[in-house]
Amino acid sequence: MSDSTSDNRAEPVTFASGDRRLAGTLFHPAVPPVAVVVLHCATGVPQGYYRHFAAWVADRFAAVVLTYDYRDFGQSGTGRMRAATATMVDWGVHDQSAALDFMIARYPDLPVDVIGHSLGGQTVPFHAQGRRVRRLIAVASGLPFWRKHPARYMPQVIAFWFLFGPLLVAMLGYLPGKVAGLGADLPSGVYWQWRRWCMRHDYFLDDPKAPLPEMARIKAQVSLVALADDVMVPPHRVEALRRIYPAADVQFDVLSPGDLGVSSLGHIAPFSKKMQGVWPALVQRWA
C-alpha angle with apex 277: 274 to 281, nearest 5 degrees? Predict the structure, then answer.
């Protein structure tokens, strides 16, 4: 596999999301494309983390793959994080929808597939052109609820949502990602809305302040991929995501580290370059 950081088939792009401009990268296959793939990032994970995976998908499926950063984050950031106004609705509803619109407009004659990581697979029914999605792979994506994590992870959950998390955001005006173990800073609006959703058993479906998804619009082939040792979105909460895809052809799979020859998978690591041996398992339904 080529290193996409030096591959001239990686093309920087920008596109509009409302009155904001988002920074993205198109990964082109070595042959004429037969499809496009929109890769929606997880909360707090910049697009660069997925670059090797995106380049691999482009070549494996002869697809043009888009990665991008949500507003007020990564390469789409516009200034000091304290001044950021982004919310989870901005990221999951508006920015993800804009990314889908951009690829449909740029490649109107090609089928559209989506790979969503965590937040990236939760919100496709909100997108106006979601009915255009042919196939969706949602990895470690579910309806998290703070009381439904494994017992060994509960101390971190309590600290993140009830102790140092709220304290740091209140003091600094944003969540310092490195301190929180996320690796990247998050806007305060993202943190507070994320917290509100995780306090509710059915996540954003229980939030009267959030828009409602048009769940019946998604008739795609949907693959829900859970990771057996993921304590952030454990498998039973991934399977709960079925309810927002009632009209889709949904398949649910749990990947175990031992079956893939690795010591652990976790929530974020499967998309890293060092885990490229597990990538075929993430997309096995498309193979």
Answer: 130
